[in-house]
Amino acid sequence: MDTKVQAVTSEKLVADLRIVIADTEQLLKAIIGESGEKLAALRPRLEENLRSARARLAEFEQMAGDKARAAVEVTDGYAHDHPWRIAGVSALVGVALGLLIGRR
């Protein structure tokens, strides 16, 4: 998925969650100080926003899981195709860390 699309999806999820939070705050205010009419009018909107936010969150989780699985598959494939490169890079990183730790 394109990073622009991912950014838009993330922004939409955050916006949906902000709407849910705002509606929840209104609901709490209605419960504390208002009549049952205002509460009854607010409830359907709150339920719809919660459903929408849950759906978007599920989509976002699915997308993140798919991306993570794809990255794991690519990394695993590369490691199987080039095991000596992986071993060499790992050894170099280990030596560099050992030198840095040894200086302290």
Unreliable runs: none
What fraction of residues sit in β-strands? under 5%
Give helix % range.
over 70%
- Categorize the overall geometry: elongated
Taking the sheet with the most strands, its summary is: none
The assembly state of the depicted protein chains is single chain
What's the tally of helices? 3
First-residue to last-residue Cα separation: 44 Å
N to C succession of SSEs:
HHH
- What structural category do the secondary elements indicate? mainly alpha
> What is the mean pLDDT?
80
Radius of gyration: 25 Å
How many domain modules? Answer: 1
Number of strands: 0
Describe this structure in words.
This protein is an all-alpha fold and 104 residues long. It has one domain (3-103). Helices cover 94% and strands 0% of the residues. Helix 1 (3-33) runs antiparallel to helix 2.
Keywords:
mainly alpha, single chain, 104 residues
How would you sum up this structure in a few lines?
The protein is mainly α. It is built from 3 helices and no strands.
